Amino acid sequence: MSRFTCFVAVIVSTLTVSRSADADLIEFVANIDGFQPASCAGTGSAATGVGSFMLDTDTGVVTYDINYAGLGSAEQAAHVHGPAPVCEFAGIVYILPSGTPKIGTASLSPQQQLETLMGRHFVLIHSADIPAGEIRGQVLPVFSPNPFLRGDCSGDGATDLGDAISLLDAIFVGGNPILCADACDMNDDGQNDLGDAIYLLSNLFAGGASLAEPLTCGADPTVDGLDCLLPTCP
Length: 234
Hints:
8 strands, elongated
């Protein structure tokens, strides 16, 4: 089993760690329009739509409800594609029913669940006049504050040398993705960079400054652009 496959299995198995009985249901939304297709060059379509998604991490089943209006010509097909970030293309993950609304379910593999959590799936609706895809919407998590332990970049419940290695691996080697950016922000400056690894190593081995709060499982006291895709501590 590859390192990445092991990582995916561990992450998906921990998604059910929660503070409430339904925390294993993760909500996503897709705002669908004509600006996002064609590598964000757009199609000129005035059509718009919205999709609501709910991922059950116990079963790997995603439930969706997608509505749209104003398509320039008849719908020919509709899919969820991935993995790809905004403006990039990827193959079909699952087929959507025709018409609006589109209501149904699909089963995702552990890796596809991780891709969804990272915002790497998107809705694409194809029409007769624009068969490559008239409107598109990235499926993105609806974030709520997730608890974390500052410094626990690897998500193993401890703060040690391995966390600095995990951060450097993600930044410079293209290793396992960072799923809790707040935990990896050792100095709480709102960024994940080399400075965080240096800050942690200084704290661990050179008597450097303490890591920022939370030093026990909790929420980020600082408002910044970072977040956790899932809880990393009880």
